[in-house]
Amino acid sequence: MAQSFTGRERSLQQQRVRAAYTFLAPMLIMLAVVAAWPLLRSIGFSFTDATADTIFNGESKWVGFENYLERRVRSNGEVRWRGVLVDPDWWNAVWNTVRFSAVSVALEATLGLLVALVLNAEFKGRGLVRAAILIPWAIPTVVSARMWGWMLNDQFGVINHMMMSVGLIDAPIAWTAQADTAMLAVLIVDVWKTTPFMALLMLAGLQMIPRDMYEAAKIDGIHPIRVFFKVTLPLLKPAILVAVIFRALDALRIFDLIYLLTPQSDATVTMSVLSYRELQQFGDYGEGSAMSTLLFLIITGFVLLYIKLGRVDLTGSKS
Amino acid sequence: MERYVFKTTLFYMAVVLIVIVAVYPFYYAILTSFETGTAIFNPNVLPEAFSLANYQAVLSKGAFIRSVGNSLLIAGVTVAFALLMAVTASYALARVRFRGRGLLLMTILAVSMFPQIAVLSGLYELVNLFGLYNSPFALILSYTIFTLPFTVWVLTTFMRDLPVEIEEAAIVDGATPWVIITRVFLPLLWPAMVTTGLLAFIGAWNEFLFALTFTISETQRTVPVAIALLSGASQQEIPWGTIMAASVLVTVPLIVLVLIFQRKIVAGLTAGGVKG
Amino acid sequence: MARIELKNVRKSYGAVEVIKGIDLDIRKGEFMVFVGPSGCGKSTLLRLISGLEEITDGDLLFDNERVNNVVPSKRGIAMVFQSYALYPHMKVYDNMAFGMQLSKSNPKEIEARVRKAAEMLQIDHLLDRLPKQLSGGQRQRVAIGRAIVRDPRVFLFDEPLSNLDAALRVDTRLEIARLNHDMEDVTMIYVTHDQVEAMTLADRICVLRDGKVEQVGTPAELYESPNSVFVAGFIGSPKMNFLKGSFAAAFDCTTLGIRPEHISVVDEARGIWRGKVIHGENLGSDYFLFVEIGAEAPLVVRRDGKEGLPVGAEIALAPEIPNLHRFGPDDRPV
Predict the structure, then answer these.
(1) Do the record's keywords include NAD (chain A) (predicted)?
(2) What is the predicted ipTM?
């Protein structure tokens, strides 16, 4: 058993830290290649006049902030501004994105909470209902966009058919094509698809609240609605907050649903969709990258703001 | 008593409403997928026709089956790859105290929240640089951008919940970090691995933006792109029946998986508080 | 088999110091118990000795060799955890053999050692089971068996009985005491917050308080001559009575300590304290009287189980003078 130590042994903690760095290395390298590098390149493109053709042959030029904002003086002395920051299409997309995010997250949080409260009650077939609400979540976005596109079809859609047969409307509505209903259509599909996710997160939060708490309130004869606002909601706040942050971040970058359900509609085009059009359809890598960079900055700012304001422990590492 | 009956009725009405709203759209897609010709254009609630013509149309096109194969390959490889790297990384993040751990976790979370569009032009260049454009590897590479942070994140939360004393017992027994991961933690973590893998698989299976951008030929398409680009004889005529049949085909296995792993998925979703 | 020396050992987490300079000499083959209230640093101290935590400052010596930076598995220690910490997916046999398998020992020797340990603890019929198929007591025995198989120089126990119910705790305590007799060369260090475990198991007890050693000594030494009010109050059940003010002044001290068994009920004439019985606890063999004598707390007096007195009785009490503990204003003995 006699062991001899040289005194130069690495302690347990040192060994573990070394192992940790080795273990993290593959992931970090991978993320640097697929995330950090492309992000930096994209930001770089936003300062050039790159197009789909010049992106590879190195012929694109550095143009500074021209893609964002450029002051041009015409020969007749007239001053003109151009660039993404003065592009009405861009601001329309910003407005659409914000509008969509705010309304969809608010609706999904409220409906999600309601569904969670229903599922938190004990009743026969609860498992089945929980399974049923997982279905919208499991369906690929492309499929739900197509499915709803069909249901909301102006001539043969079942939604128009139903609403007409109960007398809600007199004539079919072109849900996805009309400017005044396109956003509504997008919201319906997104809320349908994402509320289950919110509900499940909130249900998990609800189930963490000890039952004794409700029983104590019941014995004290406190009205259930009061219990909800005074006990349930405050205790559920952290779960709701985290769910809302994640959803909001997801909503701000929405692309596929809008691209598929309401293509070419100005009433729903979001920052991601507009940027994609600029990049892929018009091949303008400079301006498209400028837009995507702005979206990235907005989302980053939003995250920082949330962390600062809400002091949300997203990493859960305080334990 | 009357009040009680009223309340119970109201409650069950809410339950029924939730179920109908959740299930009806997919039910309607199934109905449509069995209809052809003019039957398709008659909105109906109960099945009125039964024809497999749409399914035949989808499956007879080699391209669609090819797309399913592409999607399986890409999602499978991406997830396997991500899990492999995530197991060791999440051990380091969950169980070892080191400087900058909190910051690293936040960064990983931030990457998973990236707007995909923000890296699109850079990735496009990278994919072309490696000569991967229009190949499955382009998608495997680019999907890593969201599957890797996601799996690391979720596995870290699961890994953190494993009892400290078991790890300490293993340390006293002389286990190195690698042995702890492979011989002590992995056997305890496989349910979490299955859940995480499944969620990441669904994410990769459903991805649309990268798949649309990095593939050009019909044979390289994944399922979402194939469905999005299904077109009829003319531009104006949208083949709803075929689209619904294809949708049902790719969704049913997913739903079956989700229902089988229902409880675990809920645990996985709440573990990461992640997006769908 | 090992002598363990701690020289001015310190541990801090950031700015918070939890172990504040400990000097301690643990002899070969000794059964040393660390005891103290929660938060006193006893578990941390054990983890410093095991190597699971790093020592911030000072020296830790095993048989005169500095082991501060030696990893746990190379220190020749074995540890029994509070939660048993068995590997849930391994059968009992593999749980016990895991350490030897990792050190690439001869499979025959592994098998022999596992079987021997299992027989010693009477768990040889359980070797094919998974931990979840065992009772709490059996699990803790497997955990002890796993430690034995490692053939350690030092056995470390971290509150091994606190997850067991009362009856099982007594049985397992006996088991550990027997183990200590059987393995007389092996040094054992045992952490507990329960002074009964400390008293019954220890060769010597180290009482810790707030990251420092309060007193080290045999159970009898600590019981008979505690060197502070803290130790006097911590060791012994029921607690020592403490009297202050004029009661203490009468004996030339600030705090007067007297154990319940050192007070007798006497004739009115010989009585030093007088008071009324306000409560009685009959434990069968012992009868504890709670007597209100006008001090801060009622005085607890031990009598024989059959010698109870009715509540409300007015009685006179006298302490055994040689067994009085007198403490000065610094809480140290006068």
Answers:
(1) no
(2) 0.89
